[in-house]
Amino acid sequence: MEDIILSTTELTKKYDNRVVVDGLNLEIKKGEIFGLLGPNGAGKSTTMNMICSIVRPTAGSVNLLGKNPWKQKKEVIHKIGYIPQELAIHGKLRAWENVELFTSLYGIKGNKLKQTVEESLEYVGLSEKRNEFAGKFSGGMKRRLNIACAIGHQPELLIFDEPTVGIDPQSRNFILEKIKDSNRNGATVIYTSHYMEEVEAICTRIAIMDNGKIIACGTSEELKKLVREDGSDITLEEVFLTLTGKRLRDYGE
User: Fold this and answer.
1) Rounded to an integer, what distance in angstroms lies between the CA atom of residue 78 and that of residue 83?
2) Smallest Cα–Cα separation from 49: which of 153, 192, 172, 180?
3) In 3-state terms, what secondary structure has residue 13?
4) What is the DSSP letter of 67?
């Protein structure tokens, strides 16, 4: 039986009378790159925030590495690396200072901290920019620095929430390759996006989310077979349109 690193049971979030996440049931296996595909407003970011114990659920539960992240937060927070959609870097700090700040929050100190900062910057291709202020970086460089700040403590689970929004194709390809590298190095990855081609290119399984619900889940080929029996001559975009009545491309930048 494959190890389940994360599961949610009837996970729900309401704001006043508005349901943002509606009874979500998910199981993510250790070693996967799990894609959460859906338009802006589908509830993807809220789901990730509940998993990371940033936003408290209205109902339901999360089991992360066998623990409840709300009741056992200190025990699981070190196992997660969260790369949020909104940049979590400080523009008035140099690149290395940003990585040092976030890495030190996990109790890494001294020479180990210095080594980790250098390794993280090298991993995202920013070693030569280590002394430059983050506020002067391009959009793609900021995204890469965002990743460096989240990986220094070597988390078991990496959560990427729309990490390629608003960046150039070269930076986008670089980030996708680094996500695959992290997975090959042992990290389980959750990847949320509304870019169909990215999810199909890197994810082992994909869940389609709309209006706070998971409406389908499986490999790319399994999802295509939901719409066409042999799965041939159909794109993931067409699958999404058939299942949701929406075109995901309409939710671009």
Assistant:
1) 14
2) 192
3) strand
4) B
Q: Which helix H or strand E contains 5, and what residues bound it?
A: strand 4-15
pLDDT digits (tens, 9 = 90+) for 55-95: 999 999 999 988 988 888 888 888 999 998 888 899 999 99
d(CA 14, CA 194): 22
Structure tokens belonging to residue 246: 């929406």
Q: Which residues pair with 21 in a beta bridge?
A: 13
- 152, amino acid identity: G
- Tell me the pairing of strands 188-193 and 18-29: unpaired
Tokens linked to 225: 């077979």
Segments in the chain forming alpha helices (H): 44-51, 73-76, 95-104, 110-123, 139-151, 169-184, 196-202, 220-227, 236-244
pLDDT confidence of 250, banded at 50, 70, 90?
Answer: low
Beta bridge partners of 249: none
Tokens of 209: 């989310």
DSSP bridge pairs for 213: 210
Q: Is the dihedral angle over the CA atoms 156, 190, 197, 145 positive or is it negative? A: negative
3-state secondary structure of 172: helix
pLDDT at 26 over 70: yes
- 228: CB partners within 8 A, 6+ apart: 234
Give dist(CA 6, CA 195) in Å, integer: 23
